[in-house]
Every structure is written in C-alpha cells, then in structure tokens.
Amino acid sequence: xxxxxxxxxxxxxxxxxxxxxxxxxxxxxxxxxxxxxxxxxxxxxxxxxxxxxxxxxxxxxxxxxxxxxxxxxxxxxxxxxxxxxxxxxxxxxxxxxxxxxxxxxxxxxxxxxxxxxxxxxx
Length: 122
Known about the structure:
Elements (H helix, E strand, L loop, with lengths): L11 E2 L2 E2 L4 H13 L14 E4 L8 E8 L3 E8 L2 E8 L3 E3 L3 H10 L14
Antiparallel strand pairs: 1-2, 3-4, 3-7, 4-5, 5-6
C-alpha cells in the first residue's frame, strides 16, 4: 500500500483515478484558505428531478427549469396535466437519487484535514 503524507484518498470513480482541473484545485484551496463555513452541497442542474425538502411544498417532486441567481431555483411541478413553476430557496431542494448514486457520492466527497496543517474547513 502506497502512503503519501497528507493524502487521504485519490479522487476517482470507484477505483479509477480521475484527473482534476487546476482551476478546481485552486477553487478548493481558496475556499479552505478563506476561513468561511463550507460544507458539501448537492450539485444541481437544469432538467434534474428534485424533491422539495422544506417549506409548504415539502415532499413534492419537480424538475429544475432555471437557476435564478445563486439563492433560488425555479422548479416545475406537474399538477393535473399542467405545469406550475415556483421559485424556491436552494436549501429547500434535494436531488432525487437512487442508492447507487449516494454510495458513489459518499466515496468521492470524503474530507479529512491533515492533522499537521491548519487548513481545515470551519
């Protein structure tokens, strides 16, 4: 087993390593260095099926039709063969995934700070 100080896991899909763009690495380093509160958040895209997890429409399923700035999503909800678009806060929305998707996500999104480094998420 290869051991490299400060390396917890290699980024990849399953056991296949996947290269990361330098811009992505720089962005992660900038977030860590900023000292801002950072936590994992689902990647959402237009056309994706989502469930509303909070608010008066809790447990309703819809499709993301637009992303309005960084705080709101426009979700299309089908009602009686009609579509109704509502603007919802991003934190109310969760992507619809099957169990296999979550296992893959857990494998890719593990973060353990280097105990000898001061750069930990806060």
